[in-house]
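Why this split exists: single-chain examples teach little about how molecules sit against one another. For that reason, every record in the complexes split bundles all components of an assembly together and asks for one structure covering all of them. Below is a record exactly as it appears in the raw files.
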Amino acid sequence: MDTSYNPETGLKQGNDRLTAYQIIAAYLETKQPLKTVINAHLDDSMPRIKRNFIYNLTKGTIKYLLFLDFGLSQFCKRKLEKMDPTVLILLRMAAYQLMFMQKVPAYSIVDQAVEMAKTLSHPKTANFVNAVLRRMSKIENLYQVFFSRIDALKLKPEKRFSLAYSYPLWLTSYWLDCYGIKETEKLCTTLNRNPFLFIRINEPCMNRSKAAGMLNLEEAESAELPPALAVSNFKVSSLKEMACCPWLQEGKLNIQDLSSQIAVKYFLQPQPGDSVLDLCAAPGGKALLANALMERKGTIVSVDISKKKVEEMKKHFRKIDAGPVDILCDDAAKLGALDQGMRFDRIFVDAPCSALGTISKNPDVKYNRKKQDLARLAAESMQILARARHFLKSGGKLTYYTCTLSPIENQQLIQAFLRAYPDFSVCGSIHRDLKKFTDRKYLEIKPYYFDSEGGFACTLKKD
Ligand SMILES: C[S@@+](CC[C@H](N)C(=O)[O-])C[C@H]1O[C@@H](n2cnc3c(N)ncnc32)[C@H](O)[C@@H]1O
């Protein structure tokens, strides 16, 4: 028996496009986070080049789903909703490759899709796939052609952005209401770009020149980062061979988005000797940064609701000898596990949010969220803040952070909190490094400020 063929699909084993197809089909069926589905289908022994191809193809196809469907609808007489779902996924994957993966020859994209249609669907549908894709593959600059066709339709901005950048209509409408046309378009395009990664140097265990030498990071940029973070970060477009660097495992270097670092460094501003309550804490990146800023002097109590994540965090913190951090499993809206008499100098709430600021890393967030989620999540965060305030010393500071761009969960929630608890006020003035981005005392971190995730940070002070 020829073992190089998969007995279930009849396709060659190790066929990367088949794996990508299975991931996309599983995601569309289960609506589980795409990251979870991808990880369930990829094994660590797979060569990096194969993994990257599968990542790019699956994430890219999902990222541009609505745009691809618009393009396909121009080439198929049959309505896409009536099409065999398998065939539709194969067409979407092929259209994505024709548009965005220029290094792959068009004939190979078409041939593979036709082969897969034969085995996964029906030989007759393979003829249809062949006909559609051959026509598409003859068009030069396919992406631009579809984009111009959408422009020519003269749609209202919410519909145009929804199709052209592939965001659900409720979200483009909401952002247009909040931010206007120019900023909404900028958000849509920036969040569709491949994300940058930030590698934070955990001083004093590591220093910049040693890390740069070891990681071979000549290309790493730091010029555009806020000054207080530029020296301790490398901004890179991918991890490549660095992923296996032991310093990442040992905690000497941490992969941590810049927006979280901004929240800790410029808003929480923990000082040596402080007591800090860190809510919604796992996997613990912000606790580690706070600990470093406090020079490991003081106490941090980290709380997360997930038992599994708490166990993993404890294990990791023990392994890297993280220092004075207590890790508890509890609901931050209850905090029954805390000594009720405890009072902290600073509290950090990393609120459970809609995560719209992370779309460049997790494109499925676009479709998995519904408008009603925003108000529900804001209500959950409000409960956490209302509970957290009991544990703050008079004169203490409470930092609220989200990785989302949704005023309901951010500015409006802070306003509601201040109305309910008049003994709190928004803290001081914004740090000079951030002044050019806001005229308020809080910061809405737009992803195009520093090529980071989007988010929101604000510090409140208790009388
Ligand atoms: C964005 S992550 C936090 C990241 C973390 N602060 C860090 O810097 O690594 C959100 C976390 O909030 C936790 N969470 C969600 N709801 C919670 C609640 N009610 N109480 C405590 N933790 C919660 C989740 O389990 C998840 O680990």
